[in-house]
């Protein structure tokens, strides 16, 4: 028999033995006998206290598992147990704390205001359509109507012809993205721009999307002797001054335009832009289109042009100046009027955004099914982002742009929907959306659905005021306001995570989530180690859709902040996938760099002495051409000279150098491979007519890789119009 129970039985008048476990009630005791017993022994207060203390003390006794029950038991006292706990107290207390509140309770959302009003639309619908199939038919009809409105607006906006007044024929509008240009960065166009011809006598109608004003070049580029980064890429288009076009293009520079087109209009003079400018930003600068609506215009290539003047233009865009010549320039003209003119961009927004918001809001207010709300909202918002509000960069004629967008949409929608189903099942089905009472439908719509739209339209709602385009060391150190923005974001995330952790602690659910995030953080740590050590030239990239996936499990709780967080994160996930797709979290440096990013190369060609400049006498009748000659040091001599700066990396890079490239005025003019001629044997000669070219010329040098693509170019050296030479910063 248990010792504690035996002791308790003794004091209650019950006697039990190990041989007889039956319960024997105490014998009745008469009142007189009880009185006599009390008279014989009246316990004092100290004895009563001792009795209670003894009972509490004996309750702490335990049998030793290894002790024979027939012998006196081994007793572990309260003092010895407290010693054992004291040795484990830090771990024990931490584990006890993380296990949650001593009185765990599930968080529930109680309607804040007018619960009867919030549930009225749902109750009304159930009275009017009492059968589930009727409500399903109503939802199907709404989805079909929404698809019809969306299809009509897409066909009208992306399949439009632009006609001249009075003409029966027309040309197909070419759809551009915000970074479309005629001339690629670096040496993409090849020697003398052969890959980007023709340079002139070409015109076509184009259409630009809205929201292109905030686009900036995120990697350093050169305009002559000026390095540009984190600015719009528009060169020229300012006041003409004394600039003149080459090849009989002076007439084009004084052409006038009277149509107002789809933009605001900036005057009558035609503005000339350098050929590598972003076309849509140039159109905004010229006042032909607006940032809020986008629109159509006509672009004309005018060939070689001199002196591109910078200045303020439409939509607050400030263009860059270039005080020399470039083989390609273009002008922007308003769209021609007529029956097939470019439709206003706000019509597309009105015909698609408003119906989509209306559809998702009605579903949220009228249904109590979390499954219906989740998947209807997810698919509708995903389609809107992928086709209208933030589609992927696709350019081409009007009759091909829509099929391309639809193809990309379904390529990304199917895996995204599967991921969404997993998120719903684990984060919302039985915790957040699935447990909200019908009397809180309006609050659910405002908090969850409203935040979903804010995240899905992040290119309008968030990105415009957060000065941090990419989470990279270069952007943090060079982009204005990037560090402050990162600190603010981290602070908000820490406060949010702390509040959500407290909510989980109240429910006693902290430990499982600590295990989950321990695994996730371990994976991120492995990726960071690979990125830092340079293993396999891979770099860790936390895209905003990945950030949403990491944080969504923290929203699986029924509180008002959790509703808003979940909607916002799901919207960011939709925007990231619909716009960019499932980019890898481990990307190569080449993929992250893009077309215009710096390679981070340590080696640049070293000029052997100063360039040799030959200036003929300026004869009035037959002046000779001026010339400049540049010669370089050999590879080994270059490495030895740069060792203090490159810390030994150059020897590895030297094995991957295949040739030499020379830029003059941002156009590749010389390309020679070492298999044809050694570096120290190559001489680059450049000539000019001093009667024609009276502007500076800018020279930059770079090595070539195996694929013929240039590595990072040096800084610019300048050959001025008077024949003098100057070596600029970072010129070797």
UniProtKB/TrEMBL annotation:
<feature type="domain" description="LCCL">
    <location>
        <begin position="267"/>
        <end position="295"/>
    </location>
</feature>
<feature type="compositionally biased region" description="Low complexity">
    <location>
        <begin position="247"/>
        <end position="261"/>
    </location>
</feature>
<dbReference type="InterPro" id="IPR051957">
    <property type="entry name" value="CRISP-LCCL_domain"/>
</dbReference>
<dbReference type="Pfam" id="PF03815">
    <property type="entry name" value="LCCL"/>
</dbReference>
<keyword id="KW-1133">Transmembrane helix</keyword>
<feature type="transmembrane region" description="Helical">
    <location>
        <begin position="405"/>
        <end position="425"/>
    </location>
</feature>
<feature type="region of interest" description="Disordered">
    <location>
        <begin position="1"/>
        <end position="49"/>
    </location>
</feature>
<feature type="transmembrane region" description="Helical">
    <location>
        <begin position="357"/>
        <end position="385"/>
    </location>
</feature>
<dbReference type="InterPro" id="IPR004043">
    <property type="entry name" value="LCCL"/>
</dbReference>
<feature type="transmembrane region" description="Helical">
    <location>
        <begin position="136"/>
        <end position="155"/>
    </location>
</feature>
<protein>
    <submittedName>
        <fullName>LCCL domain-containing protein</fullName>
    </submittedName>
</protein>
<feature type="transmembrane region" description="Helical">
    <location>
        <begin position="482"/>
        <end position="502"/>
    </location>
</feature>
<feature type="region of interest" description="Disordered">
    <location>
        <begin position="246"/>
        <end position="267"/>
    </location>
</feature>
<feature type="transmembrane region" description="Helical">
    <location>
        <begin position="514"/>
        <end position="536"/>
    </location>
</feature>
<dbReference type="InterPro" id="IPR036609">
    <property type="entry name" value="LCCL_sf"/>
</dbReference>
<feature type="transmembrane region" description="Helical">
    <location>
        <begin position="446"/>
        <end position="462"/>
    </location>
</feature>
<keyword id="KW-0812">Transmembrane</keyword>
<keyword id="KW-0472">Membrane</keyword>
